[in-house]
């Protein structure tokens, strides 16, 4: 199914939105605040530097909404809530809307003033939380300032709140002309004015009309949730680019709605959710939810009612709990033997040596076989997983494979042909650069394939065909089990492409055997945990580390280096061992730590040659082997890993590197699950 998707230049950020609305079920404001705080805690892994929430202002009280926001972790906001004055936390309300947010600084530094929610004025008439970037905020800000509206923050988000206020005020007064103008752009709603300024006021604009008018003036990508004193117990949610979904919980006449940037904040409340589409505007009022979709361009103010299907979340609360583990990342490393089985479940027939990937019909499979080339587009860890599988895809599929970093792909805008196949690999399915690259490829007429983990994500909806990697929820910012499951999925694609080749039968059977035994082999690799902990103690104070490998293991070194950089904040380079003589050898001395992956494959002897060059420069290499070798005993340290078929060996070799990075970070007292400056779900362009 081809879904047309306009992905604008504005880029979704890593912030987190959570909102809660109750109707027909009494809740104290203290309960509402606790629900909002708990939702923000579920979103912490996305990355943030400040947090805030807004409660109050309902039909029963009419009180001014209370806004509390703090720089730092959510627990700082939680502490601030205990001391806030002027909020009747014990008041029970049958209908109420509260909004909350974790912010990742893009416009303006991290501070209380720039934290969300943002308000339209001192009376908090309109209160906004927002993910994304408003690309025309600078122009709007200047225009609104010329109209007398003041700004208290450096953010682009505050423009939205002020815009609501300006258009609302304009709608309440008569005007002399048929349309209120705002210099070069029109920022006021299409309201029939009174015959003259002294005549009766125009009809009152609705919250939905107001939101539609505001959205027509915003450029970029965003998810916005708005509450207002003028429309108590109502809530507006708008989406263009940034992810937003709605959890629905109904019991007789009682309704509870949970809005969030991703499902992890919703799953503990309900399994039923609606994924908002681009240009959707949701209006919550009197316990009912109305979904509208806005037009584009000159039709932006034309809205039509639509129905979005309620879907079941494919996760449970246990998946987002740490359980007995100290950190989410350690839990996810240890889940890999199970997660890779889930990736293959129902897809690989080990008895009859076959693969079935849903969506890859015989027609689609033949299109890929006959392709001019397969172009993989990805970022970070997903890029390295695609690089790992390049060799086996070319070997079994017989099609040239090209690997592209999404941002560079966009910068170059390379020539694509209609018989090219483009593959997009992403854990979240919302990565900004990959999404824009996907839009570009669709415009060129290439077949698009997606490999994502999050069901219902933008990439999974936009691509022509694809496979979910089914590794389960991944909370830690540094990807672990998603990486290994991505590799398994792409190896399955390689097997599928070659299933009509008799010549490759023996090779396929080796891989099937490797996949069948990969889970227990990964468990053996996890037994190296203590050894990696001891090794981490020797490396934790280093300033630089080199990782070297060849063939399949070059990508493993790149991914391992990325993990150490992400978690331990140590400069680490992954190098192709064959390039050692072309520059990197100059770095080798007795003080430079070198980790070499020399697992047994057809390139083993060449890696041994590189080892000798390092030893000749007084290097002290740490060597990862799959078989004991007397020639390797000259290394500073030898680590013996379990062995599998060459194209799957990366699944084993990466595990000790993940553990090594984890232990170095823990020993240094660093935040393993949320490394500084990084976020999980989406990349800012």
Plain-language structure description:
The chain is an alpha/beta fold and 685 residues long. Helix content is 33%, strand content 23%. It has 19 helices and 27 strands. The protein has an eight-stranded antiparallel β-sheet with strand order 3-2-4-1-10-9-11-15, covered by helices on one side. Strands 5-6-7-8-12-13-14 form a seven-stranded antiparallel β-sheet. Helix 15 (518-526) runs parallel beside helix 19 (649-667). The longest helix is centred in the C-terminal third of the chain and has 19 residues, at 649-667. Mean pLDDT is 88; it is low at 1-13, 176-185 and 188-196.
Strand arrangement across the biggest beta sheet: 3-2-4-1-10-9-11-15
Task: For the record, give the distance between the C-alpha atoms at the N and C termini, rounded to a whole number.
Answer: 28 Å
The overall strand count is 27
Mean pLDDT: 88
Task: Sum up the overall morphology in one term.
Answer: globular
Number of helices: 19
**How much of the residues is beta strand, in percent?**
15-25%
Largest sheet: 8 strands, antiparallel
Radius of gyration: 27 Å
Structural class: alpha/beta
Unreliable spans are 1-13, 176-185, 188-196
Helix content: 25-40%
């Amino acid at each position: 199914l081809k879904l047309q998707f306009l992905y604008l230049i504005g880029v979704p950020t890593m912030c987190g939105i959570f909102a809660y609305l109750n109707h027909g079920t009494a809740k104290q404001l203290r309960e509402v605040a606790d629900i909002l705080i708990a939702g923000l805690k579920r979103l912490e892994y996305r990355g943030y530097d400040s947090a805030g929430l807004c409660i109050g202002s309902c039909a029963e009280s009419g009180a001014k909404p209370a806004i509390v926001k703090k720089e730092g972790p959510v627990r700082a906001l939680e502490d601030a809530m205990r001391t806030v004055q002027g909020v009747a936390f014990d008041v029970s309300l049958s209908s109420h809307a509260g909004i909350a947010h974790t912010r990742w600084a893009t416009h303006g530094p991290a501070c209380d003033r720039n934290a969300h929610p943002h308000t339209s004025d001192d009376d908090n008439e309109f209160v906004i939380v927002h993910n994304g970037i408003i690309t025309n905020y600078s122009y709007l800000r200047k225009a609104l300032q010329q109209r007398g509206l003041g700004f208290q923050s450096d953010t682009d988000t505050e423009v939205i709140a002020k815009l609501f206020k300006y258009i609302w005020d304009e709608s309440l007064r008569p005007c002399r002309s048929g349309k209120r103008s705002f210099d070069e752009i029109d920022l006021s709603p299409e309201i029939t004015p009174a015959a003259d300024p002294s005549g009766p006021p125009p009809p009152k604009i609705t919250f939905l009309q107001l939101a539609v008018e505001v959205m027509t003036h915003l450029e970029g990508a965003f998810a916005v949730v708005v509450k207002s004193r003028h429309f108590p117990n109502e809530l507006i949610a708008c989406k263009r680019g940034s992810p937003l979904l709605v959890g629905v919980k109904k019991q007789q006449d009682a309704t509870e709605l949970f809005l969030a940037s991703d499902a992890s904040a919703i799953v503990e409340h309900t399994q039923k959710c609606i994924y908002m589409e681009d240009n959707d505007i949701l209006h919550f009022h009197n316990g009912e939810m109305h979904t509208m979709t806005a037009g584009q361009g000159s039709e932006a103010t034309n809205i039509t009612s639509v129905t979005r299907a309620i879907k079941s979340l494919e996760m449970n609360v246990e998946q987002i709990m740490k359980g007995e583990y100290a950190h989410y990342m350690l839990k996810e490393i240890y889940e890999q033997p199970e997660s890779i089985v889930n990736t293959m479940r129902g897809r690989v027939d080990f008895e009859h040596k076959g693969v079935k990937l849903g969506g890859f019909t015989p027609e689609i499979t033949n299109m890929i076989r006959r392709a001019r080339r397969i172009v993989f587009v990805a970022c970070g860890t997903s890029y390295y997983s695609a690089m790992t599988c390049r060799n086996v895809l070319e070997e079994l599929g017989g099609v040239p494979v090209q690997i592209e970093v999404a941002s560079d792909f966009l910068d170059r805008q390379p020539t694509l042909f209609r018989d090219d196949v483009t593959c997009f690999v992403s854990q979240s399915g919302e990565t900004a650069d990959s999404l824009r690259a996907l839009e570009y490829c669709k415009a060129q007429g290439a077949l698009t394939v997606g490999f994502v983990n999050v069901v219902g994500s933008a990439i999974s909806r936009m691509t022509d065909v694809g496979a979910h990697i089914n590794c389960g929820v991944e909370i830690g910012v540094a990807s672990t089990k998603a990486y290994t499951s991505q590799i398994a999925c792409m190896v399955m694609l390689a097997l599928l492409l070659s299933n009509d080749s008799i010549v490759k039968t023996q090779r396929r059977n080796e891989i099937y055997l490797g996949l069948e035994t990969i889970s227990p082999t990964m468990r053996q690799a996890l037994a190296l945990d203590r050894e990696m902990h001891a090794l981490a103690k020797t490396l934790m104070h280093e300033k630089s580390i080199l990782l070297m490998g060849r063939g399949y293991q070059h990508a493993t070194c790149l991914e391992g280096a990325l993990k150490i950089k992400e978690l331990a904040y140590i400069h680490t380079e992954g190098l192709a061992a064959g390039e050692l003589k072309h520059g990197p050898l100059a770095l080798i001395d007795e003080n430079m730590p070198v980790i070499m992956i020399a697992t047994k494959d057809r390139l083993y002897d060449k890696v041994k040659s590189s080892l000798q060059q390092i030893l000749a420069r007084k290097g002290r290499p740490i060597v990862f082997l799959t078989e004991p070798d007397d020639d390797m005993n000259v290394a500073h340290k030898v680590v013996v890993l379990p062995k599998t078929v060459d194209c799957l060996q990366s699944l084993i070799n990466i595990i000790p590197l993940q553990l090594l990075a984890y232990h170095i970070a823990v020993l240094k007292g660093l935040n393993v699950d949320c490394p500084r400056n990084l976020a999980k779900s989406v990349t800012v362009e």
